[in-house]
Amino acid sequence: MPQGTDQSHVVPGGTSIVPEKAQEMLPKSVEDAVPNKIHDTGATGKQSHATGDSKVPQTLQEAVPKKAEEVLPDKLHDTSSKVL
Q: pLDDT (tens digit, 9 = 90+) per residue, 29-83?
């Protein structure tokens, strides 16, 4: 498990019901996974799974599930994890 960051990732002006000490101990990825209504980090939970070039618009990449991205040919949307 990643180590804590000794800081909270609540956005300025955001709110949180998570105790401050817990916020400081938790990794950012855990804080981002908590719904913003409980702990507002501003995270949307949307992400692209491209590991290389993509011809797919960013907003579409973020809207579809990982499996949908992976069925596209790597020439259009590279999701391979090849190290070059």
A: 888 777 878 878 877 767 778 888 899 888 888 778 788 888 989 999 898 865 4
Tokens for 60? 């579409």
Structure tokens belonging to residue 67? 């499996």
Residues 73-83: tens digit of each pLDDT: 999 989 886 54
Q: Which two three-digit tokens encode residue 72?
A: 């596209």
DSSP the chain: -PPP-SS--PPTT--B-S-HHHHHHS-HHHHHHS-TTTB-----------SS-B-S-HHHHHHS-HHHHHTS-TTTB-------
- Residue for token pair 């290389």: 52
